[in-house]
Design goal:
Layout: H1 9-18, E1 25-26, H2 27-37, H3 42-45, E2 49-51, E3 56-58, H4 60-74, E4 78-80, E5 87-90, H5 92-96, E6 107-111, E7 115-119, E8 133-138, H6 155-166, E9 173-182, H7 198-208, E10 213-221, H8 230-235, E11 244-251, H9 270-277, E12 285-287, E13 292-294, E14 311-313, H10 319-331, H11 342-352, E15 358-361, H12 368-375, E16 379-384, H13 387-393, E17 404-405
Parallel strand pairs: 7-16, 8-9, 8-15, 10-14, 15-16
Antiparallel strand pairs: 1-5, 2-3, 4-5, 6-7, 6-17, 9-11, 10-11, 12-13
Length: about 425
């Protein structure tokens, strides 16, 4: 059987509806349109396999299409046609589209006493910045083969794209500061289950071209990720379903980096707490040819908490996310289709910075990095080039000191 290319059905589902803005789509037609766009024959789209604990035969392709329908519904892009089963259409706000910032134009979208939300493009929006940056924390557009609505570079272009974006800010990045990039591990070679090595190329380029040092590859484990890669996991069965993304942490001067794990200690396990209360170890032994030794009294000293592991188990949804999504729906604004979770931003900001430090997000999306910085008492600057995302992000900062929203930035014809 000739194998299909890696399938990322989300943009195909969205494109099917955007290409039919004035009429609804029944699921049967949607399956046909998405299958054709993905290069799948009808029998491949509807091929069934045992799924779930009960092993009921289901089509992985149509199942994922319906999954993405629900995501688009949650983002305010799709809605069910009243009194119709399995028939969906674009919402009115989705029909109006989104407005992208003009090149070389930067406007203040909103601000608080601690931060600025800029409507513009990185790094141009930060030209002339005289502040020292203590942390650049951002999730750039992933190099998907089929771009999302906000656009993205190809894998072959990604290294140059990131270096061009980061290099103008190096003069502002404090020697004690950090750069963290949340990227995707799930970029595949064309028509192949083999992953791209774009991440390795980027790491080497950031070291060779920009003089940055790799401090760690943190694993962000998100068990609520959508199933995928669809073709290689569910159809050809060569891959496993994905559950994590890497966060690459760099520093311009590793010995001076102000990261401090005391700021992010986690509670001791029950076993460790009992061990401390009992006065520590009673055994004397060694492991690994003497590399690790246990002596009586080891681990007896009370401490404020345990040092976290570099695998961060964090879901993408939380109370702040749900409240924000409701606010966007009430305002008729679209949610971002690739949300960055508050808990991940909060952990990294508290670990790598101190109160009053400056945190910058170059591809801010819904600006959850800014919200986490605000709650942690850090100053922040977020840059986003989609107007609706800037205005929607303001809802995250309701009630914070000094909130001001630019009344001139209201949705209008494209700039």
């Amino acid at each position: 059987m000739v194998q299909s290319p890696q399938l990322d059905l989300f943009p195909l589902v969205e494109a099917a509806f955007r290409n039919c803005p004035d009429r609804p789509l029944a699921n049967a037609e949607l399956y046909r349109l998405v299958g054709a766009a993905a290069g799948l024959q009808d029998r491949e789209v509807h091929a069934k396999q045992p799924i779930g604990a009960a092993g009921q035969p289901r089509s992985p392709v149509t199942r994922e299409i319906r999954w993405h329908q629900q995501t688009l519904k949650a983002c305010g892009i799709l809605e069910r046609v009243p009194h119709e089963r399995g028939v969906w259409q674009l919402t009115e706000k989705a029909k109006r589209g989104m407005h992208r910032a003009a090149p070389q134009v930067t406007l203040l979208g909103f601000s608080t006493s601690l931060g600025l939300a800029l409507f513009g493009h990185s790094p141009q929006a930060l030209q002339g910045l005289e502040e020292r940056i203590d942390l650049v924390l951002t999730s750039p557009p992933y190099p998907l083969q089929q771009p999302r609505g906000y656009g993205n570079p190809k894998a072959s272009e990604f290294t140059d794209f990131i270096c061009r974006t980061i290099e103008p800010l190096l003069g502002n990045l404090a020697s004690t500061g950090s750069l963290v990039l949340n990227l995707s591990n799930d970029i595949f070679l064309h028509r192949s289950p083999a992953r791209s090595t774009y991440l390795e190329r980027l790491v080497i380029a950031l070291e060779d071209r920009l003089g940055l040092h790799l401090m760690d590859r943190l694993v962000w484990e998100n068990r609520s990720k959508a199933p995928g890669p669809l073709h290689w996991a569910s159809l050809s069965r060569q891959q496993l379903n994905v559950a994590w993304e890497p966060c690459y942490w760099f520093s311009p001067d590793p010995l001076r980096c102000k990261a401090n794990n005391r700021r992010v200690l986690v509670p001791h396990s029950d076993r460790k707490a009992r061990l401390i209360a009992a006065g520590g170890e009673t055994r004397q032994t060694s492991y690994g040819d003497g590399a690790y030794r246990l002596r009586p009294g080891s681990f007896a000293a009370p401490t404020e908490g345990a040092i976290p592991k570099n695998v961060l188990q964090i879901g993408h949804s939380c109370r702040r996310s749900r409240e924000h999504r409701k606010a966007l729906a009430a305002a008729g604004l679209p949610a971002h289709s690739a949300p960055f979770p508050f808990a991940l931003a909060d952990f990294l900001i508290r670990w790598l910075t101190e109160v009053d430090d400056l945190v910058v997000d170059l591809f801010a999306g819904r600006m959850m990095v800014g919200r986490a910085a605000e709650e942690a008492g850090r100053r922040w600057i977020c840059v986003e080039n989609i107007l609706e995302h800037v205005m929607g992000a303001a809802a995250l900062f309701r009630g914070f000191d000094g909130l001001w929203i630019n009344p001139a930035l209201q949705p209008r014809p494209p700039l």
